[in-house]
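Appendix B: complex inputs.
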Amino acid sequence: EVQLVESGGGLVQPGGSLRLSCAVSRFTFSSYSMNWVRQAPGRGLEWVSYISSSSDTIYYADSVKGRFTISRDNAKNSLYLQMNSLRAEDTAVYYCAREVGGFEYWGQGTLVTVSS
Amino acid sequence: DIQMTQSPSSLSASVGDRVTITCRASQSISRYLNWYQQKPGKAPKLLIYAASSLQSGVPSRFSGSGSGTDFTLTISSLQPEDFATYYCQQSYSTPYTFGQGTELEIK
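Resulting structure:
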């Protein structure tokens, strides 16, 4: 069965940085576009970023543009999200998701808490 | 950005009821509309993609319809495991956007 496992979340001070990872297995990672989606505590879903299968197309939500960087390593079956200049409003569970039409498969999420 | 508006925001229903949730886009999105179910502490689960296509493994009591700006998710006969929060999402253009969610509660 397809698996996506996020890691790298934790507590960070405002202005700090974190790098999230999403390790995938049981599918051909290099064939699929991937996304990051986040959910603040008690709130709805917010799309964060998209990367195409070959990394030639990347998009960001305005709320993270210039601060977050999405990347992937197809040889390592891994997706990344480098998060810099973190703010309190970035506190959320971050999910990676495989896109085929909709977000077909999701990881379990990793919690990022931005607080002093 | 395309705004997605769901209604109602919350809904109380009983097992066996037929339930409809609506989603409206601020501009035409053709049929690029997806529906998700989320239970507390869990990742969302894709139910319907491209407005009306049932994701593999999803029970046939779930159905979707619509095109352009107006869409619906229907659960034909509610089961106990269906009580959850439902989100619509447009995949027509980035930034991809979600509706605010509909919380389906047991009456």
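The interface with chain A takes residues 34, 36, 38, 43-46, 48-50, 53, 55, 87, 89, 91, 94-101 of chain B (CB under 8 Å).
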